[in-house]
Each structure stands twice: as C-alpha cells, then as structure tokens.
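The freezer alarm interrupted the setup, so I double-checked each line after restarting. Inputs confirmed:
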Amino acid sequence: MIGVEKARMHLQQLGLTQAAEVLDARLEAASKGQVPYADFLADLLSIEAAARRERYLVTRTRLAHFPFRRTLEEFDFSFQPSIDERQVKELATLSFVAEAANVILLGPPGVGKTHIAVGLGLKAIEQGHGVYFIRAETLVENLRRAMNEHTFERRLRVYVTPKVLIIDEFGMWPYDRLAATALFSLVSARYERGSIILTSNKGFGEWGEVLGDPVIATAILDRLLHHSHVMNIRGESYRLREKKRAGLFNLPGSHGEVKPPQ
Ligand SMILES: Nc1ncnc2c1ncn2[C@@H]1O[C@H](COP(=O)(O)OP(=O)(O)O)[C@@H](O)[C@H]1O
Ligand SMILES: [Mg+2]
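Predicted 3D structure, all chains:
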C-alpha cells in the first residue's frame, strides 16, 4: 500500500472523514506550491475541524426545534425603536446564560419576540450551549400528559437539561391549575441553573388571570424575575408592515381595513 493510501485509511479509521476526502487535492496543491509539511498538516486539520463544527451546528440547531431560523444580524432595529439595540447586543454576548439569568420578551404580535428569542438561541448554540425551543401550549400539554402517565420527573428533566429553554407565546390561552403547578415546578427546577427565554403578549399583571391562581403566579414570577432581563417591545407588527407595503392594508388612520386584492 502506498503512503497516500495508508494515510487515507488511517484518516478514515480515525473518523477524520473530511480530511480523508480532500487528502488527494490538498497533497497535490501542497507539492505544487512546495508548502512546508507543518502548513500542509495544519491546512488538512483545519478543513476537518471546520467540517466538524458545521456538523455540530447543524445537529444542535435541529435538536433545538426552532420554528424558523432567523439571526440577530437579520433583525431590523430601525423598524422597532422601542427595542434597545444595545440591550440585545449585550444579551448576544450570552453573559446571561453564564449567570443562568432569564430573558423575558413582552409585546404584541409580530414585533419580533420569537425572532429575537431564536436569534439568541442560535448564538447560544454557536457557543456550545444546549438549546430547546418549545411553544408554551405544547410544553404545558406535555407536562400535563406526563403527570397523568406518572412520568413527570422524566419529562421535567427534558426541559431542565438544556442550558437555554425558550418558552414561546406564554399566556396565549389561560391555563388550569394543573398546568400552573407544572409550570411552577419547571421554573423552580431551572432557577439559578439554566436560562429561560420567555416570550408573551401578556403583561406581568395579567399572569394571575392567565394561570388562574394569583399565588402560583407570584411564586413563578418571583423566581423567573429574580435574575432577569425584561424587554417591553411596543410598536407595529412587522408582518403587517409587509402587507401594508404590498397594499393589502390601508395606512393607519383609515381604520386599517383590508383592501380586496387588486
Ligand atoms: N425588526 C424586524 N426585523 C426583521 N424581521 C422582523 C422584525 N420584526 C419581526 N420580523 C419578522 O417578522 C416575523 C414575525 O416576527 P416574530 O418574531 O414571529 O413576532 P412575534 O413573536 O413578536 O409575534 C418573523 O418572520 C420575523 O423574522
Ligand atoms: Mg412569536
């Protein structure tokens, strides 16, 4: 077996599949350019390392269950002046994750709450943290089912393990007592251990009503807000702006009636 074949075999056996694949091409380039041995090796290993990182990011992103893939770089801050861009940039450094602090994004529909939550989630994945995204309704439903099936502890662990748990659209519908208790268990279990990013269109004052019990609501808020960054987003829906641009809506002041498509 000649040297290059042996090298390829060893690379494959070691699981360095990308390096094995590009070996011939990189060898040829190296011999043509009289590249020093060390540079050739560094080049080959950097290709393997880049491929591995890419695979890691793809897998972690898939496991996070994001509803869409939007980055913070894609967020247009000029459209939403009530968002403090500096605060988002500060959150993007992920010191809140290191501190196991929470991020609460409040505001009406379409202002970019989920976008920012996903953008922060993607940053966390890039830094090697486990992230899990779930809609509040699904979370509550799953916890409720687990309670009935006596698998609550195991289910709870699924939502406690990721360093960052994104709970989207909290309080869209009212929850019953069982759901409120389950949420309390989750927030308590994560308290000072892992971050929650929560989005909601309900202000804190409405949580008692949403959870059907002001005492549980206070207990949840107490833990959630102790170490937290709250962003109150006010403004227009980005979704509707795009519709307005397309002429499907009249401009504000004209009661926002929907125009029939031209
Ligand atoms: N300021 C913005 N810049 C760019 N895209 C935005 C902005 N705000 C919202 N969007 C986009 O509009 C859509 C609705 O935003 P989303 O985050 O789902 O709103 P919310 O969760 O507050 O209802 C998404 O596709 C999102 O990427
Ligand atoms: Mg949303």
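Quick read of the result. Residues 253-260 have pLDDT under 50 and may be disordered.
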